[in-house]
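Supplementary Text 2. Reproducibility record for the structural model of the 530-residue chain.

All settings were left at their defaults, and a single model was retained for analysis rather than an ensemble. We include the record here because the model underlies the residue-level annotations in Supplementary Table 4.
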Amino acid sequence: MILTFYGAAREVTGSCFLMQISGKNVLIDCGLRQGTDVFDGEEDGFLFDASTIDYVLLTHAHIDHSGRLPLLYKKGFRGRIYCTSATKKLCSIMLLDSAHIQESDAEWKNRKYQRSGDFEIEPLYTTEDAEKVCGYFNALDYGEEKELFRGFKISFSDAGHLLGSASVTVTATEDDVTKTIVFSGDIGNVDQPLLNDPVYLKNADYIVMESTYADRVHESVGGTEDELARIIQTTLDRGGNVVIPSFAVGRTQEILYFIRRIKEQGKVKGHDGFPVVVDSPLAIDATNIFSEVGESYYDADTKALVDAGVNPIGFDGLSVSLSSDDSRMINEDPMPKVIISASGMCEAGRIRHHLKHNLWRNECTVLFVGYQAIGTLGHAILNGAKRVRIFGEDIAVNAHVAVLGNTSSHADRVGLMRWLDAYDTRPERVFVVHGGGDNAEKWADDVRKQFTFNAVAPKFSESYDLLKNVRIKEGYIPELHSRQTPNTVYKYLLESGGRIGELIKNFKGRTNSETKKFVRELDDLFKRYS
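Retained model, structure tokens:
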């Protein structure tokens, strides 16, 4: 019974954990890395044979948890994927959107490479890969127990993070020893609009838990709506647009919920019926899914609205932009408005067009409502950049830049403590993941001090024997049970890839000249063996 960490190991994104038991290989999540989470040599592949994976247990639909499933299919996966029905619905649109971005980015880069004579690249995966992997999804309800194979049962509990998000409980038996392993997924914040609070679990032998916001305490949710109303009021009074880079799934629907209440209570004066435009095909599709899923995913207040015939995320003045022509017309219309568009970190999608047209206008406001990873355009704007480059053009940052209070869908330090404190049994070990910088290590240290639990922040590709509760020796590469198991020499090659990843991490903070020299050496290797 071996657990290996192939993502979100001292990183915020890229969730991917491999569990091996009784000759079966089970992945928990298969996510993309985002922002500056270090490239470790496996982003265009895996350090395991994808065709050997029998099952994937998916905690939720966010791309840093689900975004490499089409790649897994492309590399040979033909097993089964288990998740909640809401996650299944959301992935059916999010993975296709991700594939479209992969194809568009590759096409754009290849036009440049053709002009310069460089090697062309392939997209990480295609829309066909995304469509086909969606055929392997199987849905479970919260609390429903499913035996995947003899000695291996799973169940999902509401994590309160995103529509359909779940913590996964695995009950596994090997060599007549049974262990309960809980994978937290992303633990939700409390008192969020639309969603239930996270379910607090009671028993586990091992816990794999996130630590994204273990270093902070969120502001009260109560003032978020009033703060949003104030920003809209002052911006519309100046004659400007409120441009909101928003994650298409989850955050956009929360913002619509707040705006519905703001309009309902007349909190913005003098701009009756002010227009709100959602300009993101993915966000539009996701909003439809939020409206059509069963009430089991909603909190009590939202259920009451639905029962009363009220659309919790719909209101007068709301419009959607479906086509590219619709999107372009938004900025041609001089009427002040609220524009909600993806992506949330401004890295892709239509939001970049809206920033191009509004960032330079001092009457406008760019309102951030979510995490901005280091290295993204959103992070640069939020942290005081005077000029940014968008579509090859330098754009002055003259607009007001604001952050909306507590809109985080992640539990903060207090919430993580509350979640862990709920356990009645003492776990043998807590594995801390999803922590950027040294956040995971600090949270593991806090868990040791506050709870006296055995806690560790595993490194990328580290493996643990869950029957013996020991870390497996350095350089160990799990042998996957398949005809296609790599030979011994290839194992050493994969191990070297992991070591290169660790070496790259050590370059953070080194001089530019040292880093450039190392990049050139890597480029020479790539060209020699491509």
